[in-house]
Design brief:
Number of helices of chain A: 9
Shape of chain A: globular
CATH topology of chain A: Rossmann fold
Oligomer: homooctamer
Structural class of chain A: alpha/beta
CATH class of chain A: Alpha Beta
Strand order of the largest sheet of chain A: 2-1-3-4-5
Number of strands of chain A: 5
CATH architecture of chain A: 3-Layer(aba) Sandwich
Distance between the termini of chain A: 14 Å
Largest sheet of chain A: 5 strands, parallel
Chain lengths: 217, 217, 217, 217, 217, 217, 217, 217
């Protein structure tokens, strides 16, 4: 497993990441402060498997955030906490709000802006990190021509390209859900094709941990 | 993985199992009804890995229960739900209350009674099951001569023997925590040497799933 | 408008109908007892347009109900209240749970059972009514080959056929949403393709009222 | 319908407008943020009828406000939000408090002051709007010589005159309720002759929407 | 003052009487059990003026009651408590609901029924009492041709006649409010012309106490 | 009655005055803002008897206050509100805390300090008032040699002397309770000899209103 | 200390005993189930001093109880729990309500009735006990001619005589408070001369424990 | 007893001290402000035994504090309150967090730092005190080679040495619990070997009071 003992791992994103984490910082104390989504499960599985490694995990997700919101709080919520490893999972709201709230145009982050901002954040932060993990946004819908899915895929491609450009680890969350959707309907995992139940989060956890060398079939 | 598709898996026990599950039955609906302990994680990981297998998981744990309490509610809480697979994790309160509430003698279940009752429940139920999993009680304390640990080990041995007698699967939860305790102090997992954090629950999950052939290093 | 002055209109169904109505009976008192969905809006628009007609509206929807649940409470929740007009909007859970909770098979109401039970309820009740309105179930998804939509359409067809057989009024709610979906994405109306916002409910209201001769462009 | 696609419609007023809207801004998100009075219904009906028009509706009503209170928050609550269309419904408290709290003279806004302030607000704001709708205050009392009604009518006349002077749309809410009162008693709509139930709000909605060309018999 | 020392005074009625009294019996203990309306004030003034007389006051009002509701609970709520003195204040809902909920005809108590039931209750109970006080219903509206007021006056007349027939004390509550309305608008006392503020209750208290010989200018 | 129409009456004091009044100002709106003690009853009785006089009553009592606390908030809580009439009821805590919290010496206001501060407040404020009412502190204990009562009487005497010096109205609240105590035990009025029930407050109300010429036997 | 190891000590009484204990039985689990008055302190001090003695303490006090209330629940609340030791502290309400609620005569337990009932309970129960402790009622008032105190003393004498007759241990709680009152005012211990603060409870604890041979200066 | 009459005793520490005390200052008012741990019991026992001594006790404990946290709030929470006597009970978190949260290194206070800071606080404060009491940290575990216990003992030794150096009173809390542990298991006193029940607190109270000459066997 490539995350070094005693590392600080900061995970930032939107509601997929947030999941009820503590404010202002989702830290390892008190119980439940990391939320009940993939972040808490990642931390628990790391501790269960590597109990002597003393990982410090921070959950800094905020419901409804776009990449523009991440940028606005990057100093206090990322840089000031001096992480060794950083994961970013952003973009779902950037796309989804274009469809769900077409009149709230100030919240629509078009692909070029999304790409530029995310690249800037990565460029600024990568040098001070031991490791960077970029997670694609996703839409739990198997039909690639469905409008939200079609646009979401272009954002996912942008994340993959930024990861390649900066030699970051890329976690293809869309592929995780696509695999599940070959066997079951999206509603078994997520009421709304976005916010999955614990099973969906566990699928994200497996992909995340595999990406850092935690061996799991 | 040996649990058959479309199986009903019922998991019963004390507070380690309960973890805030819904009443009167902890079922797969609504969200959170399986609690936030090992039961919910087992269900989520099974669904994430075998999404087409349609497992039905019931959490029937109740805080503070001894094996005598299980017996009292066995008909409604186990038999009436007609599980295909059953897991039992009981005994911690049977032992712990002998030390923590020495004057509440009506709650002390001595080893012979514990063994007899558990054996009766297994004998009665095994014929109608496809699979049975017996989990030992545990005490998150590395010193085997510590009084609670010493007694708990005798109860764990009893569970192992009942499992062997009935050819049930045995999950040695004490061994799970003993492995962790070689690397870290009990207080990193459990404030009180009994109720562990999510990391401890994940360690239980791994042992549980490995016991039914879910491959996980 | 064909609903006679002083009529009692009872509207029954699932969560689309319920919308927080009062228990045990959603009546015209106190404020809010009819819920904040299409039922309350229908009652309010009828009163606003025909203030001297003294309509009595009952909301008897219950979240999560299938047609089997309606049958179980038909005596107390419909017959005992002696409605003059009755509307039924049921079937979404009958279909949706087949996809969202594949393991909860006791809640899956297959098409033949659905058709039979609904027909029985209509057959039993029609003679004592002045008017009967059958509303189709719907799925707010434009792709007719999407699995839930595809099955839902067969249930909608069954409702239409039962309406025709019994000369009941038929409200094609799926057509209402299909018209909206030609112009906007489902997420602008409903987070989960089922529970719409007030705009979706207003579209239902218009279709419902038009079906009883309330003139509205 | 004369409100242009993609318009922002801001609706300001007192408790008739407020109806539990979100603070600090009643926007289109989250659910319920526009309150459960005429504003939310107007927004829902516009969306249901013109789903591709992407209207943005803001509810900026505050319980108990007089025109003097509107003036005090005009910059932040109207101008800063840059509406394309604006509706104002104010005056009920300006009159009512003269009768209900005769000793709270600082809250009594006499007709000349009311007229002057409202005219100033309209004069200042009209140039930056695509459309302006002035709604009269009302008292749900059919007897025109009843003291509150008699005074309220003079304020309604002032609103009509300001609308004419500035070529704004005028909605005669008093006429809306007068029509209802020919057929039923005020208590069927409003406990207190001011705060009507959903039926009264729907009557306001119809008048409002008709005034902007939404065709509705 | 004609109420004898050590008397039990039971006061029954609708929301005017209830005012938040304790359930199932509004007794003299705990603090606040008599509610914050005229009943509590009567009890307090009696105790303040006649501290050695040991009056026992019961508040048995229930919101929304008509005379039919009183009849249904007369055994448990009046007879079983064995009062020495009894006051009845009923009729407002009997009338008001005819206007406010015209479709809820089962709650409309027409004058003949009202008169008959009230007379029956008085006939049954008078022999076991030391004193009986009948309070008229009222509507805080000065215009005697207003529809609710006009009907309410006929009920008030019925109460007066029953009082005369049975030689009971009559409290003309309508006259109490009529006197106030010569000097101020109804909205200064009651938002809805029924539920008055503390000032209105104090006016009732004065009339009530004067009727039993408590001297008060 | 000597309080002039349209007067503002501000009543200040400790918990006897406070009784749950609204913050920051106990005004005539909303319902209950004057608390449920003697202040609210005075306001209600004044309105009931003189409905056209438009009295404005402010309750500015604060639980636990001593005269030193009044001094600290005199500008904002009295002078800024520009009362026409002022009543002060202070001193119970000044005395009581000397006995109940002997170690909290910073809260003990000795007689000389009490007298000086109260005199200063009166001297400063009297010129801007139409009327001033000084209410003595009291202890609901008939035995004048009881230690708290004995000291309280000296504070009451100080209030009387200040009233005489400044020609203010004096309300002898101790005499009010002494009269009651000739007929009943203190526990019938006040659990703790300080905080009386509504009957005790009504006795205060009568004394207060009689002092300003409200005729009441 | 004369309470034998492994004894069950049941303590019954009124609000002095209750102090927020758990329902239906105040047992040693969960934390706080014994309330925060003298019962909990007695149990804690016994455990702290005799940790190996495994005392079981039950708190069965109920607020407001008189000896008549104890009698009504004696079977379920005392006999069924099979105590080895029993303490009874009753009588304060029997006396106090005669003064505080003179009109609630059904709650007044006169001395002869009090004595007879308490004697009956003791007679019935003594044979099955290892030890019985009778605590006198008290009134925290130093003046023995004060009316409540004077009557309370007669009840205390009755308890002493019953204790002597049955050779039970007698705890003179009135003497405990009399000793304190020689040095400080009652208000330093008890707002209302009945419900003392923790200091008063500790004084009761010391007297109670001394009575059973727990040595404490 | 060596604490002088009229002394202020300030007790500071971590969660053992805090126990729900009031914020910002745990003072003698209102009821419960001193928390329900050893501080409140000490204050109550002092008052019960020395009612005329007028002790003032402050509880300034804060959950989770280390000696570094005490230092940060020493000015406001100790010096500004001008105590005559001071007790300090700190160190449990300084040690425990090294084991329970190995990755939160910023909260680990090593022995040398602990000793230095505590010595500085004592050096600074001792001159202004009449008496100083240093309480050792403890771990309710009888096995002296258990890792937390072993380290905790070194901190306890440091406290003893600082006490000797400054001639402060030393309370050996570890010895208090060691005595209990010879007779019963730690779980009978403390779920987690740190936070004891009332019995454990009473044992602390006895040791504390004995250290200041309160005679208690």
């Amino acid at each position: 497993m490539i995350i070094q003992p005693n590392s600080k791992l900061l995970m930032i994103g939107d509601s997929i990441t947030d999941c009820g984490r503590a404010r202002p910082v989702g830290d390892m104390w008190p119980k439940g402060a990391l939320g009940d989504g993939y972040v808490g499960f990642v931390a628990a599985l790391l501790d269960a498997r590597y109990p002597a490694h003393n990982f410090r995990v921070f959950n800094m997700g905020i419901n409804g955030n776009t990449v523009m919101d991440l940028k606005a709080r990057w100093q206090t919520d990322v840089l000031d906490l001096k992480p060794d490893w950083l994961s970013i999972c952003i973009g779902i709201n950037d796309v989804w709000l274009q469809f769900a709230r077409p009149q709230m145009t100030e919240k629509h982050i078009r692909l070029d802006v999304y790409t530029r901002i995310l690249d800037e954040l990565v460029t600024e932060t990568k040098p001070m990190l031991r490791g960077l993990i970029l997670m694609s946004p996703y839409y739990i819908e198997p039909n690639r021509s469905e409008p939200v899915r079609a646009i979401m895929d272009t954002y996912g491609t942008a994340v993959r390209q930024i990861a390649e450009k900066h030699q970051a680890i890329f976690v293809d969350t869309q592929a995780v859900f696509d695999a599940l959707l070959t066997q079951t309907h999206s509603s078994a995992f997520a009421w709304d094709r976005v916010h999955s139940n614990q099973a969906g989060h566990m699928a994200l956890v497996r992909a995340f941990l595999q990406s850092v060398g935690y061996e799991w079939e």
